[in-house]
Amino acid sequence: MNNALPTAATLLAGVALLAASSAQADRSEWPDNFTVGTASQGGTYYVYGSGWANFIADELDISGGGEVTGGPTQNLALVHGGDVAFGLTTMGPASDAISGKSPLAPGLEMDNVCAMFPMYETPFSITALASSDIESIEDIPDGARIGFGPAASTSDTYFPAMLETLGVEFDRRNGGWSDLGGQLQDGLLDVIAFAAGIPIPAVSQLEVQTDVNIIEFTDAEVDTILENFPVAEFMIPASTYQTLEEDARAVSMWNFAIAGCDLPEDFVYEVTKVTMEQNDRMRSIHRSAATTIPENIDKNTVLPFHPGAARWYEENGYDIAEDMIK
C-alpha cells in the first residue's frame, strides 16, 4: 500500500480541476445566446451596439448579436420585459422609465433594468445643407421639415421640446438616421436634429457627398436648455467632422449599457470584465468608446447597477453606493 503524500504537481492539478468544474457550473446558468437592443441603422447605437455584441460573443464563446430597435426608450422596455438581454440607453429616458413615465408604457415602473457600464455622451446637434443658408437655430424658418430620428428615440423625445423652448416652429418627421440623411440630401427635409454619439455615421456620409452646415447652439440657447432639460454642456471637437473648423457648442446626455436585472450574476460580471478591461478593442468598434471606462460610472445617478457589474467595479477599486446596487 502506497501512503506517499501527493506531489505539488498533483495538488495543482486538483486545484485546476476544481476551478474548471466551478467555472463550468457557473457557466451552466448562462443563457445560450443574447441580443443587444441598439437603434436604427446609420446611427452610433447600431454601430457601437452591434460591434460590442460581436466582441462579447467572440470573447465569451457565446452566440450573440445586435438588433435594430427604436433606440433608448424602446430598449428600456425590451430589457425590462426580457425580450433582449442587453440594451443601450440614455439617462433621460432611463429616469422616465423607472419612474413610470415612459411614453411606451405610461404608469409602468421598469424595475428589471440595471446599469452595466458607461458608454459616452450623446450630443444634441443640428445639420442642414449648406445650400439652405441655415447657419443658426434662429435661421430655421417657421414650418421647417425637421427629422428627429426614430419615433420615441432620445432625439425624438427631447429635441422637439428643446427647439420649441427656443421658439422654433416645425413640421416633425421621424425615421432612421440613414433614411433621414438621404431625405435631407434630396431636399425632402430642411434640417436633421441628431442625438447620437459622435461621429454620427449619417453626418460623416453626408459631408462626403455634399456641403453641410453643422449648427451650434449660442451661449444663451445653451443656458435656456440647461434650465429646462436634464442635459450638460458639451463641445463637439472640430476633429469630429471635416466640415467643422472649430469646436461646436452643444448639449449632451450620458449613455449606459443596460442589462436585465434577473440575468445571472457571473454572466454579467464576465461581460463587464471583458468590456472594461479591453478599451482598445472597444475604441476599434467606435471611437466614442474612449469614454467607455470605469472612471465614468459616477455619471449614472438613475439606474441601479447589476450585482455582477458592481462586483467587477468593487474588485477593481471603484466604489458604488449600496443603494445603487440592485
UniProtKB/TrEMBL annotation:
Superkingdom to which the source organism belongs: Bacteria
Keywords: Signal
Signal peptide: 1-25
The keyword Ribosomal protein is annotated on this UniProt entry: no
InterPro entries attached to this UniProt entry: TRAP_TAXI (IPR011852)
PANTHER family given in the database record: SLL1037 PROTEIN
Entry protein name: TAXI family TRAP transporter solute-binding subunit
